[in-house]
Amino acid sequence: MRAGALPDLTELLDDSEPHIQREALRAILLIGTEDAYSVLRRALASGTERSRNSLMLALVAMHDERAAPLFE
Questions:
Q1: How far is residue 6's CA from residue 1's CA, in Å, rounded to a whole number?
Q2: From the CB of residue 67, how many other CB atoms can be counted at a distance below 10 Å?
Q3: Is the CB of residue 1 less than 8 Å from the CB of residue 30?
Q4: How many CB atoms lie within 10 A of CB 20?
Q5: Model confidence at 1, in pLDDT bands (50, 70, 90)?
Q6: What is the DSSP secondary structure assignment for residue 70, as one 8-state letter?
């Protein structure tokens, strides 16, 4: 996944469809840069309650070690 996609993926974190949010989250984790993690931290801290809950559920369900820095 290319870091150039990060702005578009960031917008998809607020999509009304949970599966779109999950795929954007997964793609951002694949980018794996500090900028990508910053985007996810901001989304988890300042997104709508619905999007924060959806993202947290997706992170937990993924069982992906790349998500570990978000739980620190």
A1: 9
A2: 17
A3: yes
A4: 14
A5: low
A6: G
